[in-house]
Amino acid sequence: MNCIIAQSGGPTSVINSSLAGVIQGALDNNFDNIYLSLHGIEGIINKDILEVDKKKFVRGGVKEKLMARPSSILGSCRFKLPEDLNDDIYKKIFEFLLEKEINVFVYIGGNDSMDTVKKLNAYILSNNIEGINVIGCPKTIDNDLNGMDHSPGFGSAAKYICQSLRTIRADVDIYDLESVTIVEIMGRHAGWLAASSLLADFGYHKELVNLVYVPEESKSLKEIEEEVKEKLKTEKNLIIAMAEGFRDTDSYLDKPMFSNSDDGFNHPIVSGVAQRLADYLRDKLGVKSRAVELNIVQRTSNHISKTDADEAFKLGYLALKLGLDKTNLIPVLRRKEGKSYEVFYTEVEPDLIANKEMKIPESWLKDRKILREKITAYALPLIQGEVEQRYENGMPVFVELSDFTK
Amino acid sequence: MNCIIAQSGGPTSVINSSLAGVIQGALDNNFDNIYLSLHGIEGIINKDILEVDKKKFVRGGVKEKLMARPSSILGSCRFKLPEDLNDDIYKKIFEFLLEKEINVFVYIGGNDSMDTVKKLNAYILSNNIEGINVIGCPKTIDNDLNGMDHSPGFGSAAKYICQSLRTIRADVDIYDLESVTIVEIMGRHAGWLAASSLLADFGYHKELVNLVYVPEESKSLKEIEEEVKEKLKTEKNLIIAMAEGFRDTDSYLDKPMFSNSDDGFNHPIVSGVAQRLADYLRDKLGVKSRAVELNIVQRTSNHISKTDADEAFKLGYLALKLGLDKTNLIPVLRRKEGKSYEVFYTEVEPDLIANKEMKIPESWLKDRKILREKITAYALPLIQGEVEQRYENGMPVFVELSDFTK
């Protein structure tokens, strides 16, 4: 038996934990050849693949090293398969999978990538292809994947955000004057990460994040101004957590910052809302204000949640296992009822995930006390534990592809 | 004997290591009362002080906890003493110091704060005050303090920058297309931190940072464009390290980004150069480009260099010791000649440091190969070792003032 694995979409801190899980699954199930496709599905299309050296993998302790290595080690792509199943590209893909005698293809990615899994399975069905199972494995920092309790990658991003907020709080408190610091957090359509900034308050001796703005809600600039004024009555140095996708009803925050309207990856530049709000508040309230954009390190920090990494590994492992005799599935995790945090694993069809988005429930957003309670119960378990890093010369050292491929 | 300690200027990751050093020095020299002034010199002016509980300090292992706690725990100020020594404020300060029977006042800060040390000593001299010694203790992330080999705080900031660049490199390499990522790094007048980004290359399997721009040099946009084009011939995903204070000869990068021209702390908003250059390159070269601003976490990261923390502690310890029988001094560290990294400690007068700036030597900037060699030999030793952090609930927990004060 042979399998092939690819990673797609935006990177996360635990996407390689899932890769390690798939490889471990293939080893435990005595697969002959374990192939790796570079740059997502493009590696299969362009015949740009590598093969796992099983001995290197096991002897080198690569499993643990992959779990400590953030960002897609196989590379990624933003390639959407055509709707038309008669397109030549499908033929090309399956010719290659047949040539390599692939039994299981595991595609690790987000909702766009699950669309790829769905389409490949539609092709399998309509062409009566047997013996090739295409399985998805979920990931995203945004936590907006449908059909599961939470997305692998979210916990580590939330952990990084909370760690950064603890040090940002230590920073903003030093001057004996009023200030507002607006921290811009990833999340274009869903505010899970911005809301998870509230976890930083947990066990802290005072409120650490004072206001939160998420894309699920829209407010006028005047409302925001009033909320800031109100908070400044009791707290000198405000920290505002703001999702990059938050929009005010006055459309003040979403003016393009510069002449070019997209980032070259065909996503509009939505960042800059914090800088804009800082400018507005300085103008209106005469308060010292500044913007802090938590940048791309959010999604690929090496301060990885152990809980997140372990769950991502398990999902990868289960993806391979599902592929042994089934296709068109994605392993997901759900949370058990009860006080203590415990998950169980099941599977769903890609249709439930592809092109859909899970948002923060409306009921959580009634007021900030409820949001704080709900998000803490929900997300605090997901940032627990630290994945150990290997340091050399004072810097983290990550595993390389050549460390475990032929 | 009594002493008082204050912290001033911008925060660093090891400014509390110096505080711990001063306190340890006071304990070892059997001081009776160890006072802490809150918000720099303002705490003395406003009688806003605390006293160290010696038993709590020792029993609570506070020394190690302070060394793991970034950002000025005593708070800070941006207060410049008047030039006129007859100003009432001097009288007020010394009345308080006499009232509390202070023998040693240690002021931990940067070049502005060393100006304060200088002025207080001028007052002591002109008023024949005896028995009060005012000693400075150096810190800054910018590494621009004159009279010493390097500044405490620089090593930890450089370490954070290199760690971030390792993960940013893992991120930018994932797509199989040309891209330019411009990382904006702190440094208004000196490029030490931007240049230290080159350390991230050390032991890495390829060039990690491809181009570096520092405030010590100015270039035209056309020159930058040509350098980027040249680099893109051999590397698909460029990373450019750019100091926030870098300026092009065309004055394109220093347009104010928004309507307000300062950050409320009376510093002009100079950030945004990376965003601007990303925009320019996208326009001119049609290349995918984005800006990553390494934000204030640079200066208060809890990923602290052990070397840096140990040196900062030693300087604090020596500051107190100098104050036993001398005044108007600042302990500094210098590097011993020879292949292996070793420092020795000596002292200078504040005049050598106050209001001065140390820049990257011109000879280092002749070409990038030389800069890489020079900065690596210089700064790599400074990022070595990791200060252990205490984690609770998946987040770092820092020591509080109440953990070691009465």
TrEMBL record, chains A, B:
Protein name per Swiss-Prot or TrEMBL: Pyrophosphate--fructose 6-phosphate 1-phosphotransferase
Residues binding diphosphate: G10
The protein's Enzyme Commission number: 2.7.1.90
Domain Phosphofructokinase residues, every copy: 3-319
Reaction(s) this enzyme catalyzes, per UniProt: beta-D-fructose 6-phosphate + diphosphate = beta-D-fructose 1,6-bisphosphate + phosphate + H(+)
Function: Catalyzes the phosphorylation of D-fructose 6-phosphate, the first committing step of glycolysis. Uses inorganic phosphate (PPi) as phosphoryl donor instead of ATP like common ATP-dependent phosphofructokinases (ATP-PFKs), which renders the reaction reversible, and can thus function both in glycolysis and gluconeogenesis. Consistently, PPi-PFK can replace the enzymes of both the forward (ATP-PFK) and reverse (fructose-bisphosphatase (FBPase)) reactions.
Record-marked site positions (Important for catalytic activity and substrate specificity): D112
Family statement: Belongs to the phosphofructokinase type A (PFKA) family. PPi-dependent PFK group II subfamily. Clade 'B2' sub-subfamily.
GO biological process: fructose 6-phosphate metabolic process
MF term (GO), any: 6-phosphofructokinase activity
Keywords tagged on the record: Cytoplasm, Glycolysis, Kinase, Magnesium, Metal-binding, Transferase
Complex and partners: Homodimer.
Cofactor: Mg(2+)
Subcellular location: Cytoplasm
Keyword Ribosomal protein: no
Residues of the site described as Important for catalytic activity: K139
Record keyword Cytoplasm present: yes
List of catalytic residues: D142 (proton acceptor)
InterPro entries membership: ATP_PFK (IPR022953), PFKA (IPR050929), Phosphofructokinase_dom (IPR000023), PKF_sf (IPR035966), PPi-PFK (IPR011404)
Top-rank taxon, per record: Bacteria
SUPFAM superfamilies linked: Phosphofructokinase
Endpoints of the signal sequence: none
Lineage, top ranks: Bacteria, Bacillati, Bacillota, Tissierellia, Tissierellales
The species this protein was found in: Anaerococcus prevotii (strain ATCC 9321 / DSM 20548 / JCM 6508 / NCTC 11806 / PC1) (Peptostreptococcus prevotii)
